[in-house]
Amino acid sequence: MTGMDHNDRFLRSIFQKFLISTILSVLGGTVNALVDSAIVGNMMGSDALAAINLCGPVFLLFSTVGSLLGAGGGLLSAALIGREQEAEARRAYTLAVALELVCSLVIMALGLICLDPIVRLLGADETLRPMVRDYARIAFFSAPVKCLLYIPFNYLRLDGKPGTVSAAMLLMTTCNGILDVVLIRMGFGMAGAAMASLLGTALGTAMGFAALRGGMFQFTSLRGAGGLLQELTMLGTPSALNNLLDMTRLILINRILMAAGGGSLVAVFTVVCAMSDLTLCIVAGIPQTGAPLIGVFRGERNNPAQRDLVRLELRYGLALSGAAAILIAALPGPVCALFGLSASGEAALALRLFSLSLPFAMVCSILIYFYNASGRVMLANTITFCRMFLFAVIPAALLAPFGPAVWWFRPVAEAGALAVLFPILWWFTPKNVFHSKVLLLDERQDRAGQVIDFSVDNSLQAAAEAAERIEEFCQSNGLGARRTMAVSLAIEELLTILVQYCFKPEEQASVDVRVFVIQGATGLRIRNAGRQFNPLEYYETHREEDAFEDTLGIQMVLKLAQEVRYQRTFGVNTLTVLFDKTEGEPL
Question: What are the DSSP calls for 334-354, one per residue?
């Protein structure tokens, strides 16, 4: 439609706003392992470095439980807030904390009781077994704080405090690094390194819970919380599966490498795993930034916004992962030296093949988070299973007898997962002719012309022009003159007051508008990333004052509409106007 263009300026501003804090949060959660590996490798040698890697599955077990309950609880609470059930959202928060505490205490007890069998399962030989046992024993004592960390990690962003997550992770990492050096020099060895990680995580977790106090999420009664348990665990399953498969893969590949070359190969693999953890802030952080917005847009069936968001993720993701890949491939010597390891040809090959896998991993990760957030959990889990386990462990086992060829398992796993995806999509889309080929978006409403999405500059002139141009859309959907006038008036009046109060006069920004006529339901939704401003609250406060010109427009919209709603989530003002409601149809 002439003049009704849709751009990604609004989405780009939101994405950029949360991108850095999300990357820093993920980095803070993974850099602890890198700090431990770097300090232990330099201070205690390659055997101690290998022992750190052999204990990696223990922390991945904590991550599996932590992400299952923390991510599941956060997503459930977000959904309940969207349904205007804030009391139930707090109940879900309380349930998630209680479950994290109970499950982590059980893991700690079982880990300490079964410590020796677990050390053998981790694949340690006689040389490494004492160091692995010392580290794992303290690691199991850290289970409660390691699992509980996932609560503030997920809930602080939901509470509008993403910067606090980054600060807590930075504090945790700094404390861990300092205590690593102090405790190892004091003679505590591997146990000291594990204790440093425990104390650093405890400090970061305590800071996170302190920041949650006084906010939206407070502890409440668990009476009636049983009905939330199934949905909570279901929503957390994809994140938990990723960590569970990572744990299983690490155990099996460590055993494959121990059999093929002993501790020296495992030490090289430790450096590769550390680089994998470091780049996870890009590979996971970028799609994590967009996942909550994908969930919102999916509920609205806003296909243009979903496509724009995936394009943004690909643009940033491929640029950053490509830069990281070039840096790692060009500097294998300094990377090995960081961990006290000599820059052998084997280590250089392993790092360069890992760097080759990064762009493929980035695409896989974006698709996994997209399919999960858009409700296609089985497809997301299929890609996860292929890249984290099936195409990693089997190629590693087959290539191990051929020496250095074993390091090809990383690019094979990532590229293989993408190769499997396309036959699945080819099989699916012919059966569902209304779905797009890769993102599987339901395009029936778009093709029927029942929805229109467009962007408006934050100016009064643009607001007036948008109101005029929407008439063609309304007429093409059979709306009468009265309803067309109501939609046009609502757009002009609401855009006018939002432009005045959400943006500075010189500020350049966009407001996204969506108008829909679906099964008898007519409405519009307006979003902007400007200053927080609730026009409904403003009307109630000022309608008796001299601000008559400002409140008159709002008053007219309230009289014409059946329902008007305002929300402030993820730093975005969202105003929804419904002229006719149809029960059960997502709007």
Answer: HHHHHTT----HHHHHHHHHH
